[in-house]
Design goal:
alpha+beta; Glutaredoxin; Glutathione S-transferase Yfyf (Class Pi), Chain A, domain 2; 2 domains; 56% helix
């Protein structure tokens, strides 16, 4: 039995869930809310000492850090391969994963999506200065991803990869903000990819239920 720990609103948990769905694997999703007032439970900290999500258990193996989990999901189980066959393709995949983790997550999700969409739901005004300050970095991120996008059905060609699984949850949230929608309209290959990937059963099945 594969057990995946984390909240369904997390883009990182959804990334792992997308990989599991694309591989056709059954798993048990164990909800963990790291934003709960009391923080993550003590038994979860035994799985992930940094208290982040997700974590994965498979038999005696325990993993945390999303990219490690993604690669394990692809390499440890049968099913459609989620990594390119050639060295350059795998390097491009790793490059995209690194861009997403190092630059995109904080800027696109927290500085823009959370400020523009989540924070304002209860009437709290968005921090316009924070959003404006993030736009330069966001433009660079989208331009970089557009340049790496194959222009095919998936980021790296004709079949989905771990790069698609990792990018789609972040960019889907980013697109919900007006600023994100406008930047993505200027990236035609990336926009077309996101629209296509959003129609896949894996993406629809992993839509967050509890919150965005």
């Amino acid at each position: 039995m594969i057990e995946l720990y984390g909240a369904d609103y997390s883009v990182y948990v959804r990334s792992a869930r997308l990989a599991l769905a694309e591989k056709g694997l059954a798993y048990k999703h164990v909800p963990i809310d790291v934003f709960a007032p009391e923080g993550p439970p003590a038994d979860y900290l035994a799985l992930h000492p940094f208290g982040k999500i997700p974590a994965l258990k498979h038999g005696d193996a325990t993993l945390y850090e999303t990219v490690a989990i993604l690669r394990y999901i692809d390499e440890a189980f049968d099913g459609p391969p989620l990594q390119p066959d050639d060295p350059l393709g795998r390097a491009r995949m790793t490059q995209i994963l690194s861009i997403l983790d190092t630059y995109a997550y904080r800027t696109l999700v927290w500085d823009i999506f959370v400020e523009r969409i989540v924070k304002t739901r209860d009437g709290t005004p968005a921090d316009e200065v924070k959003i404006a300050a993030a736009m330069g970095a966001a433009r660079t991120i989208i331009t970089a991803l557009e340049s790496l996008c194959s222009g095919g059905s998936f980021l790296l060609g004709t079949r989905p990869s771990l790069a698609d699984c990792h990018a789609a949850p972040m960019l889907a949230l980013f697109q919900m903000a007006e600023e994100g929608s406008l930047l993505l309209k200027a990236a035609p290959r990336l926009s077309a990819w996101l629209a296509h990937f959003a129609t896949r059963p894996s993406f629809q099945e992993t839509a967050p239920q509890s919150r965005d």
